[in-house]
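Why this split exists: single-chain examples teach little about how molecules sit against one another. For that reason, every record in the complexes split bundles all components of an assembly together and asks for one structure covering all of them. Below is a record exactly as it appears in the raw files.
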Amino acid sequence: MKILVFGQLTDIFGDSFVRMRDIPDTDTMVKRLEENYPALKKMKYLIAIDKEIVRENTLLSESCEISLLPPFSGG
Amino acid sequence: MKHTLKNIFQHGAIPASFVGDSIAKHSSKTGIGAHSIFLGQVRADDVDGKKVTAIEYTAYEDMALKKMHEIREEIFARYPITCMHVHHSLGKVQTGEICLFVFTSSPHRKAATEACNELVERIKEELPVWGKELFTDEGYRWKINH
């Protein structure tokens, strides 16, 4: 599964995406990401699935477009 | 049928001539009585003695265009405006250059100004766009919107 990351999160992941296997839902994803990238725990971000922000634990499938969005700072 | 969303992004700064041309294009729309324009300019902030020289913008473009489409529909539904144009820079924009151009037009001034203000606020709050403030010494800081 490919997770897109943006803004200051690219500093933590060192890239614009991170790959993970076998993640059933967003809570598991966050837990596993935080294990591998402890700096993520201190970051503020939202999770979007297929370009929509999700605020509760959400089931994931291989076809989902997952992204981690730190606070927006456009304009 | 695949629906193509209107693009708002352009690479680099928005030239002043582009703004002028956009205004000129509306001269044939004689039902318009008022234009409201917001221009965002990159500010040379001083951060702990380091000066911002440019902002480098990145975006989750697909999501930003989808969100912008929703915002556009809502603004058109709420205000009696004739047209609405939004242009946002991606990539590097130097201090003093324009990075955001929001342009609304209506028969009477109130709708144009209110729609323009709301658009600017929502663009800053809701579009997945990020600014990286670049310093003279090659360091950087991620921009925070207030």
